[in-house]
Amino acid sequence: MKIKRKKQTAQRQLTQRFIILLMSILIVINLIFILILTKSTYEYMEDQANQIFDSVVLNKNATSDWETVVDAYVSKDEDDALKISLNTGDSYYSAEGQEKFRALKKGRQFLFFNHLFIAKDGEVYYFQQRNWPDLTAALALNVESIVEMTSSILFVSILLNLIALGVGAFLIYLSVGRWSKSLSTMAQEINQIEENPQQLLKLSVPENPIETSNVATAFNTLLEEQRQAMAREQQFVTDASHELRTPLAAIRGHVQLIQRRGTDHPEVIPNSIAFIDKESKRMEKMINQLLLLGRNSQENEVEAVNVGEIVQQEIDKIQLISKQTIRAELSDAIILSCVKLDLQRLVQNIIENAVKYSDASSEVFVYLSEEQQKIIISVLDEGIGIPDNQKDKIFERFYRVDDSRSSEIEGSGIGLSLVAAIVAKYHGEIEVLDNKPKGTQIKIILPK
Question: Where, by residue number, does the polypeptide cross the bilayer (predicted)?
Answer without folding.
Answer: 20-38, 153-176
